[in-house]
Amino acid sequence: MDKKKTAFIGGTGYARDGKVPPSEQYLKELQEWNTSWCPVPWTSYGINNNGDYRMCIQANTHRKSRGILRDKENVAMRADKQSVADTRNCSMLKDVRKSMIKGERHEICQRCNKEDDMGQQSRRRLDTRRFFDVFNYEDSKRVTQEDGTIDVKATPIVEADIRFSNLCNLACRMCNPTESTQWYKEHAVLEGRKFASGDYRIKLIKDKGRTKAGGGWISSIETGEVPQPVRWNPFDWYEKTDLWKNFKEHAPDIKLIHISGGEPLINQKQYELLENLIDQGLSQNIVLDYNTNWTNVPQKLFEYWKHFKRIDIGGSVDGIGKIDDYIRHPSKWSQIEKNIIKLDRESPDNVNPWITFTLQILNVMEPMTMIEWNIKNKFQKLNRLAKTPWFTQHPVHNPKYYCVTSLPEKAKKYVRQQYENWLYGYFKEWCGDLPKDYLLPNSNTPVEPDTIRSWDKKPEVLFDETEYHLQSMLKFMESSDTSNYLLDFIDHTRALDETRGQDIQEYFSPQIYEMIDDWAKENGTRF
Q1: I want to staple 387 with a disulfide (CB 3.0 to 4.6 A). Which of 121, 271, 407, 516 is the partner?
Q2: Bridge partner list, 290
Q3: DSSP letter at 245?
């Protein structure tokens, strides 16, 4: 398979002549004989919001390792202590590379393994497409020794994933204080004044009426060593490093930077990153990939973004209206919708916004509502380069009590029935009434004007694509039974409803509520 130049796109776009792009063809051919290979362990580096280096965010679902890179003494490697170069031949990365070259699926990659098997668009598939003409399987064999060690100088870093602390303005129900400072006060009330983040055990203290992270300690669960007291907050790592000031030195070939948090659009440190990339003359070749909650979209960012190749900005939206406010407390849907329209209508031409939907128990009935909302609003750019015609979806894997696999069997059957009634009723009729040459309103987006999508071919393909992705959600839901976690879901919901002055019955599907309540009664409790 020879490398061929192609547009740098985020999904499965097609040329205007309808031909399958080389990136898609490469992925298809590779997966016929190797379903494990991914460029990430060779060409990417990631930093957790607590400063730990990690292999990738998806590896966080591997409970034993959480994907954290460690030195020879089994100590987590940190961005404020080690350079990127120091991490590139650590034991975890070498072990994963060996497996991938052999075509063996590594246990650390369990999230992508499962998502691939469910027919969803995993990061493995996405990055194999994105970078196939920069670094592919053949390149990995050329630069990798038998034990997984790579020739660092011959292996470009093309992707970085930087999470600027846990500073956030929301306390989403499936989240925790490791990911959001907004969780501190509530966690102290419900769980106590300590929380864990990797190897760090962090104390929550009161300071002038506010709950904040104070000192803590480091402990090695693996070795059982005596905990070491620390006086610093690991989430302040970005104040102690100039990592992003030296991209020309450690990542001159960088093409994509993920920026997340916490909530990155309220963190002033991101502006320093953008200014450095612009000053180093690298910005015009870089795609910035944001994960944000869209509660705040500063106008001044538009001026910074004009200097970059493209801005991919995924907004975490878990429903339309009050259900999103319930899940992503204390957000206001009215403001989020205004910001979505602002990004769609007023942002620079190189800005590519899409919705990132995290499928979970609380919003399992929302995909149909979100599709109808998309249809009604006739967006000009929104979701053009998403993984589906309507949004990019990721299932919640953890906490398990929010995962849709934890629904009672009766509820799963009901969900499938409702999806299929809507799909083969309303949606099929809507597609059938469209003209044969119908294109979604966002098909003329200036972001990638020469790229069409598979669903642009005709209304029947739009229906097929939508059916495929809805069925993949159902397939994931039915892939296992973790309903033993439902008691935790009930307890967690009760506790948060009490502290937030909410009642799930005002927001949640009454039918599914009743089915969970019936399950709870059978197990000696009530919802």
Answers
A1: 121
A2: 259, 313
A3: G
Residue 191, token pair as written in the block = 């769980």
Alpha-carbon 103 to chain mean position: 25
Report the DSSP beta bridge partners of residue 217. 201, 229
At residue 250, the 3 state secondary structure works out as helix
Integer Cα distance of 175 and 290 in angstroms: 18
CA distance 167 to 410: 39
pTM for the full predicted model: 0.86
What 3-state DSSP class applies to 52? strand
- H or E element that contains 402: none
The whole-number mean pLDDT for each consecutive block of 10 residues of the chain, a chain of 527 residues, reads 36 53 82 88 91 86 83 91 92 93 89 81 83 89 95 91 91 94 93 86 85 68 48 80 76 89 89 91 93 93 95 95 96 96 94 95 97 96 90 91 96 97 97 94 82 85 94 94 95 95 95 95 88
Q: Which two tokens stand for residue 362?
A: 């609380």
Across the strands, what pairs with 316?
356
What are the structure tokens assigned to 38, written together?
Answer: 């991914």
Return the residue matching tokens 């120091």: 86
Q: How far is CA 145 from the centre of its chain?
A: 31
* Number of residues in the chain: 527
What burial class does residue 380 get, using C-beta atoms within 10 Å of its C-beta: 0-12 exposed, 13-18 middle, 19+ buried?
middle
β-pairing, 351-359 vs 392-395, is parallel
DSSP 3-state assignment of 495? helix
Phi, psi for residue 481 in degrees, rounded to 5: -120, 105
Q: Which of 339, 353, 356, 340 has the alpha carbon at shortest distance from 381? A: 353
Terminal Cα distance for the chain, rounded: 56
**Amino acid (1-letter code) at residue 323:** I
Q: What is the distance, to the nearest Å, from the Cα of residue 422 to the centroid of all Cα atoms in its chain?
A: 27
- Conformational region of residue 44, where left means phi above 0, alpha means psi within -120 to 50, and beta covers everything else: beta
d(CA 427, CA 326): 27
Measure the CA–CA gap between 95 and 273, rounded to whole angstroms: 32
